[in-house]
Write a structure and sequence with these properties.
Length: 328
């Protein structure tokens, strides 16, 4: 939900930076100031000085208080690409608020995380959907018909599975021009991840189809004259959906990490577009991690998100497994 309405939840655009606030640390939220009779969230402005090593050192400028307001006006954005609005969940006037700190260009990390979720999550969801549709159809047809179709399909699957997925992903990306636009790179990553992911799914679905085609309901469907296409679509594939639902949730983390790896290496989503992978590129240097530890926030978000999908997948596997027995 936050990713869908990123414009509303983000106080700034993903590319809105102020070089005067480069590497600004996370702002401290204050709630009560008895002397000035303030009992609402507020922040202080930033005060900057340069130390003897020419590093920017930030501290709070307590000469003025900036209240944090809800539903404030800011940059304009569109909801569902139709409605143009300029209201945001929170914000301040007179200074910038960085709840998770700023990057080297003074851009708000929280805003870039929210906008980056659109890309990282959508690539995972779209990529896994495409690969599962291909894998289920190819695996179902291969297992049902057998013979030469099964042999050719499984040999292709085995050749694809012999190559480590990460290196195959790098090789596929390197085969395309490096100067693609952000939209082209987005589409390319979806295609690459889908191309890599369908093989293992097809192999499992093929094994399930081999056992299902000998079941009584399939033999009965053949006896009454149903076509092979209808048998596959109505009787074989629906019985694989319980596995597919579980496998979808367990596979999404791999797609998110795949996009993050490509973007981290500079082969994925390019600046100024935000994705969790290219944001994490700032944490490649040990100096940045030591001086500006908040650049690791995208990595923490990736770990939390992938863990959530794994937990949901494991829970669904326990619920949908027909062989699972619960002993009281």
């Amino acid at each position: 939900m936050t990713a869908i309405f990123a414009g509303f939840f983000s106080p700034y655009r993903y590319d809105d930076g102020d070089i005067a606030y480069r590497w600004a640390p996370p702002a401290k939220l204050h709630f009560i100031n008895v002397q000035k009779k303030i009992f609402r969230p507020y922040v202080y402005g930033y005060k900057v000085k340069v130390d003897r090593y020419y590093r920017r050192v930030y501290s709070e400028d307590r000469s003025r208080i900036y209240p944090v307001k809800l539903f404030v006006k800011g940059f304009r954005y569109k909801i569902f690409g139709i409605f143009s609005v300029n209201r945001h969940l929170f914000g301040t006037q007179g200074t910038r608020i960085y709840l998770l700190g700023a990057d080297l260009k003074g851009r708000d990390i929280l805003s870039r995380l929210i906008y980056g979720a659109r890309i990282s999550l959508s690539i995972g969801l779209i990529g896994v959907t495409i690969s599962f549709v291909i894998g289920i159809i190819v695996g179902g047809i291969s297992g049902y018909f057998g013979g030469w179709a099964d042999n050719i399909t499984m040999r292709i699957v085995e050749m694809m599975m012999m190559v480590p997925g990460f290196y195959l992903m790098l090789a596929l990306r390197a085969s395309f021009p490096p100067d693609f636009s952000s939209a082209q790179v987005y589409f390319l990553i979806v295609v690459i991840l889908s191309f890599i992911g369908w093989a293992s799914i097809a192999r499992v679905i093929r094994g399930m189809a081999l056992s299902l085609k000998e079941r009584e309901f399939v033999l009965a469907a053949k006896a009454i004259g149903l076509s092979n296409f209808k048998i596959i679509m109505r009787h074989i594939l629906p019985h694989t959906f319980s596995y597919a639902v579980v496998a979808v949730f367990l596979s999404i983390p791999g797609y998110i990490i795949g996009e993050a790896a490509l973007s981290l290496l500079g082969l994925g989503i390019q600046e100024p577009q935000a994705s969790w992978g290219n944001m994490l590129a700032l944490a490649q240097g040990i100096v940045n991690i030591k001086l500006y530890p908040w650049v690791l926030t995208p990595g923490v978000i990736i770990v939390i998100t992938t863990s959530c999908f794994n937990i949901i997948g494991e829970a669904l596997r326990d619920v949908l497994d027909p062989k699972r027995k619960v002993f009281q």
